[in-house]
Design a protein that fits this description.
The chain has eleven helices and two strands. By secondary structure, it is mostly helical. Helix 1 packs antiparallel against helix 9 and helix 3 packs antiparallel against helix 7.
């Protein structure tokens, strides 16, 4: 349980990697966010497995040149959503979902070629989109990413709620971890399952009550310090030559990929 909480903290809060001297960390958050979103859109709308593979390999390459260890990155992109999507895609392999040319028969079940293509497209789009999103999150400090979202016209209320939720998750993960440590120090590693259920239920109720109280206290503290609905950050974005070069190179690569897909269809 403690290991799961630690993994959750490392997966969501990646400001340590955002401060590394890497390629993506040195880019303007607005340019970086725009290009990553364009790459995600390309991954969602492309009908070429080769382009999906290229985009995924590109995300791995960008992670390496940004100073992120490949194993560290893969653990945070393949767990949860991609594995869940893989389980969803398994039924699409069989003929009762995707009829067509059979590839392998297993009794009454038959794996078809259209089913394999459909499953590969689905899983490929998910893992590529998740990898690019995680890469953006791991190479951009969260307050800079929220400020970049405001630049693109995302409603202020949505950005504010997202920022507060980000901080709250960190706080409550810390509380859950400390509570688990306190329980183990008092009861040991073994207890009756009914006792464990009662302890978990009591802690969930206590955490909910504490979160409601903390919510009101934090908002009152924000109002007392001059908050009027729009958060103000001290750092200012500045687009430099490397940012324009990155944007130009990204657009050229995307146009070449779109042209290659279009030419392959002719």
């Amino acid at each position: 349980m403690r290991g799961a909480l630690l993994f959750l903290k490392q997966s969501i809060f990646a400001d340590e990697t955002a401060c590394l001297p890497g390629l993506l960390q040195s880019l303007d958050p607005r340019i970086k966010t725009a290009t990553v979103l364009l790459l995600i859109l390309l991954a969602l709308f492309t009908r070429s497995i080769a382009i999906l593979a290229f985009l995924y390999l590109l995300s791995l390459t960008l992670a390496l040149v940004s100073g992120i260890r490949l194993g560290f990155f893969l653990k945070r992109t393949w767990i949860f959503i991609p594995l869940f999507s893989l389980m969803i895609a398994i039924p699409a392999l069989f003929s009762f979902v995707s009829p067509g040319e059979p590839v392998k028969s297993m009794g009454a079940l038959c794996i078809t070629r259209p089913g394999i293509l459909a499953a590969c497209f689905f899983v490929g789009r998910v893992i590529t989109s998740v990898s690019l999103t995680v890469l953006l999150n791991m190479t951009t400090r969260h307050f800079e990413l929220l400020k970049a979202l405001r630049f693109f016209g995302v409603p202020q209320l949505f950005v504010m709620v997202l920022g507060i939720s980000y901080r709250y998750i960190y706080l409550f993960v810390e509380i859950a971890e400390n509570t688990l440590r306190a329980i183990k120090s008092r009861t040991g590693s073994r207890m009756h399952y009914q006792t464990g259920q009662n302890i978990v239920a009591w802690n969930i109720a206590h955490l909910w009550t504490r979160s409601c109280l903390l919510n009101e206290q934090v908002y009152n503290a924000m109002l007392s310090r001059g908050f009027r609905g729009e958060p103000i950050t001290l750092n200012q974005f500045q687009i430099r030559t490397r940012d324009w070069c990155w944007a130009f190179g990204s657009i050229v690569i995307m146009l070449l990929l779109v042209y290659a897909e279009y030419a392959a269809r002719l």
